[in-house]
Design goal:
8-stranded mixed β-sheet, 339 residues, alpha/beta, single chain
Length: 339
């Protein structure tokens, strides 16, 4: 749980965040203002997440990335200037990130994830991880769970994207609109008149770790029944994570033909492993997972940024626990896995 730790907003902050305070209240904005967020991976998706979180008015954001800026990054990464190719992606993103909201402390870390101790990740209220292998994601997720901190991860491949959230044991408030009968006059002639009343209801959501979500048992009837809906996004995510784990990279547009063959082979292996219907994961969706399309990064980055704000402000129901963006159907949706 994120506490406001006695944070008081200055007059300038109250003016800056006036719309947000009107939307979700002063106490929620104070919780946001006291939050420290780590964003791992400054690809196009990482840049979108950073933009949304910095604009929300958190206390601090650390951009962690040990990779160099490449020309292909410039198609979706708007925080790094085009004349900084070959320099560290986190450091080159600092100037524009800080300009988004001077009230937020924005720093950069250029070490690789594996070079940082567990204690480092435990110092943040929220960790958002992108571009990592499954083992790295699970390691950081477990660290966050030990500290009861929030963990989110996600990726965009081409136009396909996903998000996973583990908010551990999360308490939040939700506004509920109720309709109440009221008496309008002394003769009770309008006893059937009604008015709306808004009340705040305290709720609680329990989350599972990433490892549970990625090892969902597809022999269970409740999961097999989802196959009738015909959306393969969960399995596409697993194929792409497997590709990254095996080849230490994402599918490369410069190797489209050979990488597509690898993806289709992995698809066939997964279909056999999980006894999925033949053709359930189409060839079409696996040919559209190269590079990062800016529009898809904006969609997934917007969802992740929104979920971080909801988590730290403790306002409104969070997504539990996965979001997918399917480019073939051009639709985003939320599903629960691992419980």
């Amino acid at each position: 749980m994120v506490e406001n730790n006695g944070v008081e907003l200055s007059e300038a902050e109250a003016e800056q965040y006036d719309r947000q305070i009107r939307l979700w209240g002063l106490e929620s904005q104070k919780r946001i203002r006291s939050s420290k967020v780590l964003i791992i991976g400054l690809s196009g998706l990482g840049a979108e997440i950073a933009k949304n979180i910095i604009l929300s008015g958190v206390k601090s954001v650390c951009l962690l990335d040990n990779e160099k800026l490449k020309e292909t990054d410039l198609h979706s990464q708007f925080l790094a200037p085009s004349d900084k190719i070959g320099e560290n992606r986190a450091e080159t993103s600092l100037q524009r990130a800080r300009a988004l909201n001077p009230m937020v402390e924005v720093t950069a870390e250029t070490k690789a994830v594996e070079a940082l101790p567990d204690s480092y990740f435990g110092t943040f209220d929220v960790v958002c991880a992108t571009g990592l292998k499954q083992e790295q994601l699970e390691r950081i997720n477990n660290i966050c769970r030990d500290k009861t901190n929030k963990f989110l991860c996600g990726d965009v491949w081409g136009m396909f994207g996903y998000m996973f959230a583990d908010l551990f044991d999360h308490e939040y408030s939700e506004e509920i609109v109720q309709h109440k009968a009221v008496k309008r006059g002394p003769d009770d002639s309008e006893k059937n008149a009604r008015e709306t009343v808004t009340i705040n209801v305290k709720r609680r959501a329990i989350y599972v770790p990433l490892q549970n979500a990625l090892s969902a048992d597809w022999t269970k009837p409740e999961l097999r029944s989802r196959l009738r809906r015909g959306d393969p996004s969960y399995f596409v995510m697993k194929i792409l994570l497997r590709f990254r784990d095996e080849y230490n990279r994402n599918p490369d547009p410069a190797k489209r033909k050979s990488d597509t063959e690898i993806l289709l082979r992995m698809r066939n292996e997964l279909v056999k492993e999980l006894n999925l219907p033949v053709g359930f994961v189409s060839d079409a969706i696996l040919t559209d997972v190269f590079g990062i399309v800016a529009g898809a990064a904006a969609v997934v980055g917007g969802v992740i940024g929104q979920e971080v704000v909801k988590a730290v402000s403790q306002r409104e129901p969070p997504h539990n626990n996965m979001f997918f963006f399917n480019p073939v159907k051009c639709v985003g949706f939320v599903e629960l896995y691992g419980q």
